[in-house]
Automatic annotation (TrEMBL):
Residues 25-42 have a biased composition (Low complexity). It holds the Pfam family DUF2388. Residues 1-20 form the signal peptide. Keywords: Signal. It comes from Luteimonas salinilitoris. This is DUF2388 domain-containing protein. InterPro entries: CHP02448 (IPR012661). NCBIfam families: conserverd hypothetical protein (TIGR02448). The keyword Nucleus does not apply. Residues 25-47 are annotated as: Disordered.
Length: 100
């Protein structure tokens, strides 16, 4: 359920004038309510990104001056797993995380 919402939010952000990059997704994936025990690691990906929301808010509010550990982990994970995340800057990714 998170994946469709995430993709829609990120697609909307990628077309916003404030965002110069073309970011169209993240590493977050959908896992149904009963399948958390599956071998698919996307539920862990969702968790890392979602837990970074507070850090992302601080980062955006401070114009990049405050960089929390959870945000750093989410940025690293997004860039490792999503080629499109490598083309945008930290501020754009932080705003995309906030849009979740």
């Amino acid at each position: 359920m998170i994946r469709p919402i995430l993709i829609c939010a990120l697609l909307a952000l990628s077309s916003a004038p404030a965002l110069a990059g073309s970011f169209a997704g993240t590493s977050a994936g959908a896992s149904s309510a009963g399948s958390s025990a599956s071998s698919d690691s996307t539920s862990g990906d969702d968790k890392v990104v979602l837990q970074a929301r507070d850090d992302a808010a601080s980062f955006v509010a401070s114009d990049g001056q405050i960089r929390g550990a959870q945000l750093e982990a989410a940025l690293r994970q997004l860039r490792e797993r999503r080629p499109d995340a490598r083309r945008v800057n930290d501020m754009q990714l932080a705003r995309a995380i906030l849009a979740l």
